[in-house]
Design a protein that fits this description.
The chain is an alpha/beta fold. It contains nine helices and ten strands.
């Protein structure tokens, strides 16, 4: 299995790591945000050295308590960084974390390789046409909310895994009917507040992650520093590294292809070790 973006290819014969590069002042993880261009570029370089296969650049926080960001402001945050890092010609792919078509279009023009859409193509009809036209991969992520503003709700699922699978099945069908090739689709079942503020629901997703492979698409998991880790371990966000590594290990053992993380170096090691165990 591999990802294709225009003329570039990224093999998925073993799990890959996606580093998080937030260039927004209200990121939920204080140490994971880089509002100055030089700092953001330096962190990109650092993540590449630490083993990131993809770096996901985002200019809008979607966590609980976040506020809407005007697309023009989102562009002002991400474009100066993208203009620099896209010219570095590293093997590392660059992803834009947005559900806005204008932001995605400007990012792709700079040379970005893929789009990470937390709204699974529900927010902007123009983004669907853009993905089809540009022939780049897109992440379809589950979110319990109908907007980019993630709530602190604890929905009552009959079966959280079945409900998330049903959602993703519908989004896959929508994408394909819109002309997006199956090989462009990546699935993210969601974690933390995107699923529920009840930690048990996120844990169930990880435990039964293999079920999401039935769709035939790569599965991405982003547990890093999330609220459910804090709830389980009773720890603040700054002390959730080990919990995130445990989640990454569980995800790899249960079929994940991509791990999204704030902590690239440690996660790279955990992912490689989990892969060795799985294939021993």
């Amino acid at each position: 299995m591999e990802l294709k973006s225009r003329t570039k290819k990224l093999k998925l014969d073993k799990p890959i790591v996606m580093g998080v590069l937030n260039v927004t002042p209200n990121s939920f993880y204080e140490k994971g945000k880089y509002t100055e261009v030089d700092d953001a570029v330096a962190r990109f370089d650092e993540m590449v050295k630490e083993g990131a296969d993809i770096v996901d650049v985002g200019g809008e926080s979607t966590g609980p308590g976040s506020k809407d960001v005007d697309p023009k402001d989102e562009l002002k945050r991400v474009l100066p960084v993208l203009k620099i890092i896209c010219k570095k010609r590293t093997k590392c792919w660059i992803s834009i974390d947005t559900y806005n078509a204008n932001v995605a279009a400007a990012a792709l023009k700079q040379g970005v390789n893929m789009v990470n859409d937390v709204m699974a193509l529900r927010a902007d009809p123009k983004l669907v046409k853009l993905i089809k036209k540009e022939k780049v991969p897109v992440v379809l992520m589950y979110s319990k909310d109908d907007s980019g503003r993630t709530s602190r709700k604890k929905p009552k699922y009959e079966d959280v895994v079945d409900d998330v699978k049903d959602f993703l099945k519908k989004r896959i069908k929508f994408a394909k009917e819109a002309g997006i090739n199956a090989s462009q689709i990546i699935l993210d079942p969601g974690q933390g507040a995107f699923i529920s503020m009840d930690s048990a629901e996120s844990c169930k997703i990880l435990k039964r992650l293999k079920e999401f492979r039935q769709f035939g698409h790569p599965v991405l998991v982003g547990s890093s520093r999330k609220s459910f880790i804090g709830e389980v371990l009773d720890l603040p966000i700054e002390e959730r590294l080990e919990g995130g590594l445990a989640c990454a290990t569980a995800a790899i053992l249960n079929g994940a292809s991509i791990i999204r993380t704030h902590d690239v170096a440690a996660t790279r090691r955990a992912v490689d070790m989990a892969w060795a165990i799985k294939n021993s």
